[in-house]
Amino acid sequence: MPHATTHMKPTTHPTALHLVMLLGVVSLFADMTYEGARSLIGPYLAALGAGATAVGVVAGMGEAIGYGLRIVSGLITDRTHRYWTMTLAGYAVNLLAVPALALAGNWKTAAVLIMTERFGKAIRTPARDAILSHAAHGLGRGWAFGLHEAMDQIGAMIGPIIVAAVLAWKGRYEYGFAVLALPALLALAVLIIARISHPQPHNLEPTMHTLEARGLRSTFWFYLMAVACIALGFADFPLVAFHLKTKGIVADQWIPVIYAGAMGVEALSALVLGRLYDQKGVSVLVVTIGVSAWSAPFVFVSGPVLVILGIVLWGIGMGAQESIIRAVVADLVPWDQRATGYGIFNAGFGLAWFAGSAFMGLLYDRSLMALAAFSVAVQFASMPWLHFVQRRLPTTRVATDAKP
Question: Which residues lie across from 93 on neighbouring strands?
């Protein structure tokens, strides 16, 4: 066990829970905003005259910006210690770009706003996750991240429904984007309340001084390798939806319902898996990946009944990604390097996700069996790395999870 000294700072569970809940409400309104917008972006760009290639390039560049720049924003956050400033600035850019789409007028302006929205998310995510990790310390990180993700997914389910209703009522995309100004402003208002209520979130976690920083860093990189394997083999829902439509497995109107159901499974599993992680550690992630990795065979090489089982497994896998996988990062990275750790982690995860999605798209046109085999094999390749982290993490958790 590494020698560690702890400088205890005053904290209470109600205070920490209050901050987690506030950040959860922010994410709920934020997801209503940009997930509602994402459900319209493709057809909106087409209506403004963009071709399929332009739509693909805009979407790809937006995601590349959204993940790649998190390394930079994480480093800046830890260097300046401006966690709330980065979070507030990022959310402002992220959210206000969405209703501005109503005024775009042409697809090129809309494309700039879409990439601006992703840029804002890149700015705020490492800082926000670092703040959340401090609040999660006294509550159980798995549970806190799971609760945050559950609230996040409630917003992700409500947003597309709102814009669909507005579109059916008004018949114009501009109204759909304009109505999203309301949840955007609500998210920013709640975020300001969180900033005023909890100006020093790092006080919720004891300051640790450990002599084994190198060991912690190496464990983090091994963990990133494991998570990259998971991301590389995890099928993106657009490919799943494409399969359901082109193969005639379900009628078009049922695909959004299936997606909403998957988001519900994700929210519930995030809560359950987060709590189990706090009790059992990384072994919960190992078991979960061993189960959810089989989603691709059920979705892509089976009949309608087993497809639903595959969607449920997909939702469980997503729930693990947004609760346990994020929580482990906080247990591996020292508190004063947390934003940098999340920035590097998110960038690596995103790069692997998009590389895997592109490759599985190519495999789809050649062999569904090969796609399913690739998905399962690559995710199972994460197991040795996870077992290594599991052996190392209990030592680090003694230091980082000591209760004040």
Answer: none
